[in-house]
Each structure stands twice: as C-alpha cells, then as structure tokens.
Amino acid sequence: MPKKRGSAKQLKTTDQTLKTRTLNYADTHKEIVEKCKAGDRQAQFELYRLYSKAMYNVCLRMVKDELDAEDLLQNSFVDIFTKLDSFRYQSSVGAWIKRIVINNCINYLKKKKIYFQELEDRHAAVPEEGITHADDTKGLSVKAVKQALFDLPDGYRVVFSLYMLEGYDHKEIGDILGIAETTSKSQYSRAKAKLRDILRAQKLVSNL
Q1: Neighbours of 185 (CB within 10 A)
Q2: CB 55 within 8 A of CB 76
Q3: To 10 degrees, what angle do helices 181-201 and 142-149 make?
Q4: CB 206 within 8 A of CB 200
C-alpha cells in the first residue's frame, strides 16, 4: 500500500512538471519581453539579436531577394516592437515574431502580385502521395533543399517553405495566404515534384 501512495505522488509530480514545462515554453525570454514593453533599448537589442538571423532567413526564403529580405526584416521588427504590448504569452514569443514576419512577407508578395494568380489558376486536383515530412527530404541535406528552393516558382516556394520549413499545416497556410486548404496541398505536391526535377538536374538525388 505505501508503494501505491508513492506511485500516485510520483504521477502527480510528473504531471506538474509537464505543465510547468509547457508554461515555461510560452514564457521563453519573458523577462526580455517585459523589459522591451517598458521601452528598455538594451532589451530590444537583445530580442533583435536573438531572432533577427532566423527571421532574415525566413524572409529570404519567402521573397528570394537579399535586399528585399533585409527591408522586410527591419520593417517587421518595427511592427514587432510596436505590437509587443499585445503579446500575451499564448505562444512562444519566437512563434509570435515569426507570424508577423511571414505576414509581412505575404503582404509584400501580394503587392508585387508575384504568385497568387498561379495559386488560384493552377490548383487542379493533384494525387495525394501520403509522403511525410521525414520522407520528403530523405537522403538530402537541409542545405541542398534550401538552395534548390530558390529555383522554384514563387507560389511553390512559399507554400513549400511554410509547410516544410516553418511547420505550418495546410489549413494554417490556407488561412495565411487566403486560399483553400486543397490549393495549398496541390501547390505543395507540385513544389515537391518540381524540387525533385531540380535536384535530379543538379545530380543531388537519384530517386527522390
């Protein structure tokens, strides 16, 4: 009987630990964020230092131009610091920052009218292949895939990046881009096929 009481206590402790870890995830860099909200310039610089490189890479994958990516990064951080008071730790601050950056990239592409015609006009049904994230890049380095992305048409590149590299599902991508979930899926399937062709041409893959 004492052993059972110990087991129950252990389970309760484990449950509390898991809850704490979940809360801690949302509270990542909370002290820095709160200082930024108070107008602390050093804290703002630190938040920028922590996330600027990763967010620049997001911008570059989305718009494929270094100068445009740099402009989008700077404008995004202006928005981030302006809107920071609205951040309520319902997600990690990194996820919140990334969503602002991606939204700014999408708005930029909408203004440029680069790819939305392609998304809407070419979304005929594509057979579902049932390939998982792990299967998609089997045998390939992340670097090889990211480099090949720049040879994809804009619509394909954006959907592939959001799904494969940024971790959004097709429903979320549809909401972000203002398209149907099925359109996101078909664009992703076409992007994979095109990416295979690019990598084969570069002799980086034989049977992807």
Answers
A1: 20
A2: yes
A3: 110
A4: yes
CATH of region 2-112: 1.10.1740.10
Nearest by Cα to 154 from 69, 56, 62: 62
Q: Where are the domains of the chain?
A: 2-112, 116-201
C-alpha to C-alpha distance for 97 and 80, rounded to whole angstroms = 7
DSSP state for residue 12 in the 8-state scheme: H
What top-level class would CATH report for the domain 116-201?
mainly alpha
Question: How many residues in total does the chain contain?
Answer: 208
Q: How far apart are CA 72 and CA 106, in angstroms?
A: 10
Report DSSP state, residue 163.
I
Give the model confidence (pLDDT) of 36-94 as tens digits. Answer: 999 999 999 999 999 999 999 999 999 999 999 999 999 999 999 999 999 999 999 99
Angle, vertex CA 140, rays to CA 192 and CA 56, nearest 5: 75
Among 154, 149, 183, smallest CA distance to 165 is for 149
Residue 188 to residue 174: CA distance in whole angstroms: 12
